[in-house]
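We now fix the convention by which a protein and its fold are recorded. The integers have meaning only within a learned vocabulary of local backbone shapes. A complete example follows; check for yourself that the lines match position by position.
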Amino acid sequence: MTTYLRQARTSASQQVAPFTGEGAYHGSTRPRVEPLREAPAPPLVDELRPRTLEQYAAEGRRDIAEFEAVFPNHHAVVETLPIPTQEAIQSDGVSFCWCPIDDAIREAGPLTRSVLEAMRAHVGGGKRHVYIDSKIQYFAPGDVPVDSQHWHVDGSIVARDERARRLGHALLHDMRARLQAPALGPRYLAYQSSGHCATLFATAPVTLTLPELIPNFDELDRRVRALAPPAVAQPPGSIVRFDGLSLHRAVAATDAGWRLWVRCVETDRMVTPDASIIACYGKVYRTPT
């Protein structure tokens, strides 16, 4: 299982792809790169059970209803670390994709290791797995860290199966199940080294009408933007705590420079990433001129 990538980085070697807004590894319907070999499906856990879709399938329903979705938008800065130099970020060497936290601490470069050691003190416990994602990216002004700037939540409940296809979609996010399920969803800690490409977090509860099942985040983004909730950019050097009900989105870089991003995920889900994901995990996305 490949969960980390060790490589030297320069601004000239930064992977750049055209920005499409699709975000194939962020819940879109755009085809993914096929894995080198098919991994066995992990056991279904309550945290990811698509209860609404299960009900639709059991009742033979074909029309997707709407519901009142309430996003509490829990978000808090739990610690602020010294802002690293650009040289320290560039030379840190190792990035991670769904890597168990103990393995990540062992393999990390000095900057990322210091972040992970600080994060470990804020892990709440009670979940089966604690994983680390991280990226070391060089941005030109206007670059985006992921191929989407939509408002979204992390850890949505996604089904890619015949039940979704019967409703006319390749995949569906079960938003009602995420927002109203009894099982506690995933919890997150996130770090950003720099302020020139900072994630934007909604800071007040948001209530809106939303389809119970959505094929992507387009409709959620449109309705959140119409409400224009108060939001704040993550401060440089900070570690923030949020959860699977916290609306946030990526923004384009305002200046050139390196950024280290680290995310810690507490989840009951067992994840086995394939090489196609980690190979593209440090790309930046650029609007064609």
User: Anything to note?
Assistant: The chain has eight helices and 18 strands. Residues 25-29 have pLDDT under 50 and may be disordered.
